[in-house]
Design brief:
Blueprint (H helix, E strand, L loop, with lengths): L1 H5 L6 H31 L18 H23 L3 H27 L1 H17 L5 H13 L58 H7 L5 H11 L1 H34 L2
Helix pairs in contact: 2-3, 2-9, 3-4, 4-9
Family: Belongs to the tetraspanin (TM4SF) family.
Organism: Takifugu rubripes
InterPro entries: Tetraspanin/Peripherin, Tetraspanin_animals, Tetraspanin_CS, Tetraspanin_EC2_sf
Length: 268
């Protein structure tokens, strides 16, 4: 009789350990991201002076590692320990938190589609704001250089956006050697050069528009990013759909395990 009493009210080992394995990877990856972010902040002296977090006028790329790593660490911990210990509170937290992230992503995607022009304006503002802070943070500098090299662009709408930076602006009062220039990442690469010429952008904006085109990229990064999105729409959409399916799968696994745990407890 005891056997029949518990029949159909057992915790599925497959679901339990699959959810555990699924989340331990996220937990460890989140811990690695957090570690990299904290190490980067320690190297820049941010951890010893937390008030300097707000000093940077532009975007600090380390925030990506901190925020993404923190979310992955919390989610991974809740899902991993919740599955292993069959803890209903942690499993509920995991499901709700993951569901909330999914809802926010869906909302952001819809709003981005509806308010495309506003998003474009915000992207333009974001890039120009970071152009101003280009020399303030080495991580931000590397991020901008990578973006300009990858998308073969210069500035938000063109090279003259670099007038916003105190080192590159074209005013007569600017004593910088980089005055009226652009960063080396704006330069058209010469395949014959093995070593990057970091001075290739000096004085380039003193030239005529047609002469500039031989030396630097003249298209803005906003337009180039839009073009890249259109050219790679299937790939980008595939990534977002894949992430969404993983989140739904995780929620289903957690809810399935939660139902099993509740069913077993109801028979105690």
């Amino acid at each position: 009789m005891k056997h029949h009493h518990f029949k159909g009210a057992e915790v599925s080992c497959c679901v339990k350990y699959f959810l555990f394995g699924f989340n331990i990877l996220f937990w460890l990856l989140g811990a690695a991201f957090l570690g990299i972010g904290l190490w980067a902040w320690a190297e820049k002296g941010v951890l010893s002076n937390l008030s300097s977090i707000t000093d940077l006028g532009g975007f600090d790329p380390v925030w990506l590692f901190i925020v993404v790593g923190g979310v992955m660490f919390i989610l991974g911990f809740a899902g991993c320990i919740g599955a292993l210990r069959e803890n209903t509170f942690l499993l509920k937290f995991f499901s709700v938190f993951l569901g909330l992230i999914f809802f926010l992503e869906l909302t952001a995607g819809i709003l981005a589609f509806v308010f495309k022009d506003w998003i474009k304006d915000q992207l333009n503002f974001f890039i120009n704001n970071n152009i101003k802070a280009y020399r303030d943070d080495i991580d931000l500098q590397n991020l901008i250089d990578f973006a300009q090299e990858y998308w073969s662009c210069c500035g938000a709408h063109g090279p003259d956006d670099w007038n916003l930076n105190i080192y590159f602006n074209c005013t007569d009062l600017n004593p910088s050697r980089e005055s009226c220039g652009v960063p080396f990442s704006c330069c058209v690469k010469d395949p014959a050069e093995d070593v990057i010429n970091t001075q290739c952008g000096y004085d380039v904006r003193r030239k005529r528009e047609l002469d500039r085109q031989q030396d630097i990229y003249t298209k803005g990064c906003v337009g180039q990013f839009e073009k890249w999105l259109q050219d790679n729409l299937k790939f980008v959409a595939g990534i977002f759909v894949g992430i969404a399916l993983l989140q739904i799968f995780g929620i289903c696994l957690a809810q399935n395990l939660l139902s099993d745990v509740k069913a077993v407890k109801a028979n105690w």
